Amino acid sequence: MKISKIVVVLILVLLSSCDDKAVFDQYKSVSTSWNKKDIVNFKINAPDSINPYNLFVNVRNTNDYKYSNLFLIVEMNFPHGKTLTDTLEYDMTKKNGEWLGEGLSSVKENKLWYKKGVIFNESGTYNVNIQQAMRSNGEVNGVVNLEGITDVGFRIEKTE
Q1: Which of 25, 46, 60, 125 is the most buried (most CB within 10 A)?
Q2: CATH number of the domain within which 34 lies
Q3: What does the DSSP assignment read for 24-71?
Q4: Pfam families recorded for this chain (predicted)?
Q5: Strand 149-158's sheet: what is its strand order?
Q6: Three-state SS at 159
Q7: What is the reported pTM?
């Protein structure tokens, strides 16, 4: 009797954790520090050419991250040669210095908006490149090795 209750609970947990909105969701680890020349690349097959999708950059950070924001350069290469490049800034902390993002441990996961309502109107493989573009205040040159970022991800969700 106890075993069947445990099985039912496990099945309910697994079903509730299913993510029916995700079309693509992948992470890649960066080394102990994310070098400004290291580009994280994702190859994505177009889900379809009709429906709109929301795109996100996902970032996992630890307490070793010493900034309150994050600058990224995100480049999306379309199958037929078109390229979109965006320089993006995201808040990583609240005003009081508390981390944004989710997670019970020292690693926080941040789901950052990239683009809303994107239609993949070209068939084939899209390439998304993500590169850190951090600078310290008053510095002209960028941060060469960014510490505290452990993983970078890209996510595509169905719109509601």
Answers
A1: 60
A2: 2.60.120
A3: EEEEEE--SEEETT--EEEEEE---SSSEEEEEEEEEE-TT---SEEE
A4: GldH_lipo (PF14109)
A5: 22-29, 149-158, 52-61, 108-119
A6: coil
A7: 0.85
- 72-91 confidence digits (pLDDT tens): 999 999 999 999 999 999 99
Token pair recorded at residue 97:
């210095």
Burial 35-59 (b: 16+ CB within 10 A, else e): ebeeebebebebeeeeeebbbbbbb
Q: Confidence class of residue 160 from pLDDT cuts 50, 70 and 90? A: confident
Q: Residue 12 domain-assigned? A: no
Domain membership flag for residue 5: no
According to DSSP, the residues that pair with 83 across neighbouring strands are 77
Q: Is there a contact between 144 and 135 (Cβ–Cβ < 8 Å)?
A: no
Question: The domain containing residue 139 runs over which residues?
Answer: 20-158
- The share of the chain scoring above pLDDT 90, in percent, equals 76
pLDDT at 12: 46
